[in-house]
Specification:
seven-stranded mixed beta sheet, mainly beta, four-stranded antiparallel beta sheet
Length: 128
């Protein structure tokens, strides 16, 4: 069974840090671009960050640029989202998603819907 599982969410004070993990089972992430998305209550799901299958290209939403870092460890079949200087407006359910990438687009990633596989989400709450 193909599955993505997020972990690492929780409650953190403003200014704090969390590291989210996205682990794949049943398939290898090596040939997939990975995206992180989030959805706050009453709001639409939005793209946060993505990383190309090659790992050479990353993109970030303006709201998280300079604070969040995406990375991948193909040996562990896992992608990470390091979140620093967290703000209350970062509170949301965070999802990772995988998009199969042909070799010709191995250096591309996009933060838009249409990913092949999605995780179940992990809650991040930033509050004092």
């Amino acid at each position: 069974q193909l599955q993505l599982v997020e972990s690492g969410g929780g409650l953190v004070q403003p200014g704090g840090s969390l590291r989210l993990s996205c682990a794949a089972s049943g398939f290898t992430l090596e040939h997939y671009a990975i995206g992180w998305f989030r959805q706050a209550p009453g709001k639409e799901r939005e793209g946060v960050s993505c990383i190309s299958s090659s790992g050479r290209v990353t993109n970030y939403a303006d709201s998280v640029k300079g604070r969040f870092t995406i990375s991948r460890d193909n040996a562990k079949n896992t992608v990470y989202l390091e979140m620093n200087s967290l703000k209350p407006e970062d509170t949301a359910v965070y999802y990772c998603a995988a998009l199969r990438a042909a070799p010709v687009v191995k250096h591309l990633c996009v933060m838009s819907p249409g990913y092949d596989y999605w995780g179940q989400g992990t809650q991040v709450t930033v509050s004092s």
